[in-house]
Amino acid sequence: MDYETIIVETRGKVGLITLNRPQALNALNATLLGEVNRALDVFEADRGIGCIVVTGSEKAFAAGADIKEMANLTYPQIYADDHFAGWDRVANRRKPMIAAVAGFALGGGCEFAMMCDFIIAAENAKFGQPEIKLGVMPGMGGTQRLTRLIGRAKAMEMCLTGRMMGAEEAERSGLVARVVPTAELLNEALKTAEAIASMSQPIVMMTKESINRADEVSLSEGVRFERRVFHAMFATADQKEGMAAFVEKRAPRFSDR
Ligand code: CAA
User: Fold this and answer.
1) What residue's CA is closest to ligand 1, atom 14?
2) CA atoms within a 13 Å half-sphere pointing along the CA-CB vector of 9
3) How many structural domains is the chain composed of?
4) Does residue 25 sit within a domain?
5) Which reaction does this enzyme catalyse, per its entry (predicted)?
6) Which of 27, 109, 111, 122 is catalytic?
7) By residue range, what is the domain housing residue 207?
8) Ligand 1 atom at minimum distance from 67 CA
9) What is the reported pTM?
10) Is 194 annotated in the active site?
11) Same domain assignment for residues 102 and 154
12) Residues 161 and 230 in one domain
């Protein structure tokens, strides 16, 4: 399949998407959104893919939504198009997605990274929601996801001032799972993705779904949801295999059933 703005590869059981608009620091335009969704459709349909990694370049994961594409849109146009709604399809994928972030992850770039299940950051990563400086605010979920991840005080400060946050602060604040040396970023992300892809695929997807419920419901409803899904796992062959392998002191051989 031909892509203009991304590079799509398969590394074993891992699907890798590399954002590739270097001339615009990977600014997210409509073509890129369409291509990312197309690549994700393919990976989601492929039973051989167990985890997806999204990355950019060493200079930029993505410097935001494409300002030049957006600048002259009118309210009727942006409303009629339900501009950015296509990103909901990215955020609602069922297979696990890791964002491997080096360099700038600003505006929509930070928001795209936050749509993934977790972020692994290079030491040179810089996160920010600078939209306020453009006379707008985050529009791809930033006011909501950043607040859930790092709390109200820091989200408010970031979105109201537009200041950037380095990798160390981002890890301390809960925005990123882990910081790694910049040169090691892709290797570390692929290793982590391979580890996830080696687990039972249905169990991984149910675990992701259960964690995502935490953003939507009360604690008691979330715990109830978790328990029901936990019970359902006992209908899988992989639960039998995983527990038998432990008892027999051997590695499990999951069959994704
Ligand atoms: N949209 C379109 N083009 C962009 C872009 C963006 N978000 N970010 C960078 N570019 C382009 C620049 O215009 C420039 O192109 P030209 O060479 O044709 O002029 C090229 O990428 C390189 O950028 P710079 O020369 O600016 O590179 P730099 O190293 O000097 O600065 C930067 C890097 C600090 C990231 C700076 O590019 C910048 O501030 N970018 C914009 C960041 C931003 O405001 N992002 C939010 C966008 S709005 C949004 O995302 C809304 C939302 O919630 C979804």
Assistant:
1) 24
2) 11
3) 2
4) yes
5) a 4-saturated-(3S)-3-hydroxyacyl-CoA = a (3E)-enoyl-CoA + H2O; a (3S)-3-hydroxyacyl-CoA = a (2E)-enoyl-CoA + H2O
6) 111
7) 200-248
8) 1
9) 0.98
10) no
11) yes
12) no
